[in-house]
């Protein structure tokens, strides 16, 4: 049995190697996240960040690129010159041709060039295409830098279907043990997502209501105002279902629906999430036709400015790829049987928001005959982004004499306002967990494969169907069929301003 005492401590020495060190993810997210942790004094004292890429940069050139990135992505008041200089001094860059053995030998020499290299934790962050995961891991093993203190971080997507996910997992698993593999989903590092566990399991008032007796339905929405931008080539191969539903939205669903673990530990949470994925109602072709909607954005207005269609962003009009998905599913277990879960995600929507809404059932009996005003079901809104927090919608009596006038009101919790502190970016928390060896917020192999097992029937049905994604104007909430998905059940999507 896993110990309830956390073994996750900060190592004395660490080499954090980023493959793809000059890429967008590294410069926009990873390096700023590590800088913020250095600013807070949380990185190991003996810590290096090694950038590996095909760019012909020396250490000074990469440091200049990272300095520019910090200036862009870190708030000015957080850029303290002594800390910036200290952080940049940690950086080294290595140009590496994957096919050149001498380049790999240079990486080996760089990692060994420290006092007591056998005591340093080595983190290998693969911010590269998934097709390279296996070959990079094999090379790392061949040059002798993988030991029991080594860890590898895999960015999504882990494959594009179940078979390819297994191939990736097998290839990486031949080198690293499962406990050394950290499959990252940055949504799980967000404050509000983690606070969902605390809200559910550290408070007594919700858990008795968190079941089919009192919950009418659950909605999970992740909408973006941006289009595909420079990711068109990748996105047209993936689509919204692979890019967002199979990982981000299903992970959020798991945290809402999971059973209480004995305690929040490295495997207990992941054990419960896998159970949820395996309990999802399998999607038959008829289910897919009835309970899924796919769409693609057309020209429209976002924030008052005209934006092009997906076909224009892509450069051609022959694609059948979806940029929007709405679907209905159910967790078939004792707690949730009969409760629909509605999932929705899309690009070029009317607003950028990620939100979980738990809608409770109406009271079983109306006790205020003749009351003025309308009542609405109680709802718990869990705001994931951009403004992390929670909002509980209740019905209250409007002050004044002369009978009952009922009005919906809300109890709001804004993390920024309540705690009066900067909220760390999700990557900051997750990268520190990797360094400490805490896998709780990362996906295990069986989680990834269970998610693909559930998703694949939808992909197969869409591929065999002659129907094309429904058009929706950019700057809207998606195709009208998505609204009808709920309306036929007598429900509506809960928008953020409701």
Automatic annotation (TrEMBL):
Gene3D superfamilies per the UniProt record, alphabetical: Dihydrodipicolinate Reductase, domain 2, NAD(P)-binding Rossmann-like Domain
GO cellular component: cytosol
InterPro entries, per database record: G6P_DH (IPR001282), G6P_DH_AS (IPR019796), G6P_DH_C (IPR022675), G6P_DH_NAD-bd (IPR022674), NAD(P)-bd_dom_sf (IPR036291)
Positions bound to NADP(+): 156
Pfam families tied to this protein: G6PD_C, G6PD_N
One GO-annotated biological process of the protein: pentose-phosphate shunt, oxidative branch
Enzyme class: oxidoreductase
Gene Ontology MF: a single term: NADP binding
Name of the protein in its database record: Glucose-6-phosphate 1-dehydrogenase
Species per Swiss-Prot/TrEMBL record: Nocardioides soli
């Amino acid at each position: 049995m896993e110990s309830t005492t956390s073994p996750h401590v900060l190592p004395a020495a660490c080499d954090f190697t980023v493959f793809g060190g000059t890429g967008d993810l590294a410069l926009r997210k990873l390096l700023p996240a590590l800088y913020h942790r250095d600013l807070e004094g949380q990185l190991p004292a003996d810590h290096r960040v090694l950038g590996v890429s095909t760019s012909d940069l020396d250490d000074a050139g990469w440091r200049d690129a990272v300095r520019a990135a910090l200036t862009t992505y870190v708030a000015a008041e957080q850029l303290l010159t002594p800390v910036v200089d200290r952080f940049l001094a940690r950086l080294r860059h290595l140009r590496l041709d994957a096919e050149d053995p001498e380049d790999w030998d240079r990486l080996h020499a760089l990692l060994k060039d420290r006092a007591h290299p056998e005591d340093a934790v080595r983190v290998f962050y693969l911010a590269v295409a998934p097709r390279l995961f296996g070959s990079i891991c094999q090379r790392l093993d061949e040059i002798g830098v993988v030991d029991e203190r080594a860890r590898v971080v895999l960015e999504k997507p882990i494959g594009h279907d179940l078979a390819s996910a297994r191939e990736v997992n097998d290839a990486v698993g031949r080198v690293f043990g499962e406990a050394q593999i950290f499959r990252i989903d940055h949504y799980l590092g967000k404050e509000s997502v983690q606070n969902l566990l605390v809200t559910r399991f550290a408070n007594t008032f919700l858990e008795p209501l968190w079941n089919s007796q009192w919950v009418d339905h659950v909605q999970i929405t992740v909408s973006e105002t941006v289009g595909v931008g420079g990711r068109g080539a990748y996105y047209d191969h993936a689509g919204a279902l692979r890019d967002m539903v199979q990982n981000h939205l299903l992970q959020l669903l798991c945290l809402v629906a999971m059973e209480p673990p004995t305690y929040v530990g490295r495997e207990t949470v992941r054990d419960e999430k896998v159970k949820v994925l395996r309990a999802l109602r399998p999607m038959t072709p008829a289910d897919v036709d009835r309970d899924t909607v796919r769409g693609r954005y057309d020209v429209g207005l976002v924030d008052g400015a005209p934006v092009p269609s997906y076909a224009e962003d892509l450069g051609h009009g022959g694609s059948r790829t979806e940029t929007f998905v709405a679907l209905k599913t159910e967790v078939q277990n004792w707690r949730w049987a009969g409760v629909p879960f509605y999932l929705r995600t899309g690009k070029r929507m009317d607003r950028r928001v990620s939100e979980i809404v738990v809608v409770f059932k109406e009271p079983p009996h109306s006790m205020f005959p003749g009351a003025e005003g309308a009542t609405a079901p109680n709802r718990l809104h869990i705001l994931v982004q951009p403004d992390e927090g929670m909002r509980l919608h209740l019905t209250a009596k409007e002050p004044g004499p002369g009978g009952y006038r009922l009005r919906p009101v809300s109890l709001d919790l804004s993390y920024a306002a309540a705690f009066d502190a900067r909220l760390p970016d999700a990557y900051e928390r997750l990268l520190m967990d990797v360094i400490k060896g805490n896998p709780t917020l990362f996906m295990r192999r069986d989680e990834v494969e269970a998610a693909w097992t559930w998703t694949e029937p939808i992909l197969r049905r869409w591929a065999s169907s002659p129907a094309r994604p429904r058009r929706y104007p950019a700057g809207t909430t998606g195709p009208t069929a998505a609204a009808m998905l709920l309306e036929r059940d007598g429900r509506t999507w809960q928008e953020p301003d409701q």
